[in-house]
């Protein structure tokens, strides 16, 4: 299937044949059935996007500040987010699901209302409202960073350009550290242009698998165990190392 930025390559696509061991379900994780509908022309009015540019994207490293971070999450300390903070907030979203149209999540609603959506439309075509029911695994990751004000997280709805952004910032590598943003290709390719899906690393199991938390996996936020053979690479946000 030829992917478009609102189709197979948009955040959340998990094609058949993915190597995955699920902590939630035995079958490989598949994203929403809306992927097939979109690729079949449900969003045919959206112009086909050009291939992602290899040049650095002019994106600020500090996402939009979040709102409503609870005192319980802050733990009464000065607010400098750590990887543990990001994973705690992400874990609190487990069980959030999309509606029957493939939308309705807080992550999609946030993205549609943010400047990131306008930037995506200028870059890729279409209209802001298209994001309301689009695949949302990268919106989930971006939402986590924005809510906590994590530096160096970036924000996007398109996994490939988000991965390229990390690489352009010099924050890209092959080590599965907690809180890292992990990009997958179900074909096993190590090319950024082949990326299908994104999540966050919870831990390296040191047995050829990693534990992750992901949005838009079986239409929900879930914890997964993934084989590292499907990992293209990792983006590293600028977390604080202060866990006091």
From TrEMBL:
Keywords: Signal. The keyword Protein transport does not apply. It comes from the Bacteria. Residues 132-216 form the Peptidase C51 domain. InterPro entries: CHAP_dom. Residues 1-25 form the signal peptide. This is CHAP domain-containing protein. It comes from Actinoallomurus bryophytorum. The lineage of its organism: Bacteria, Bacillati, Actinomycetota, Actinomycetes, Streptosporangiales.
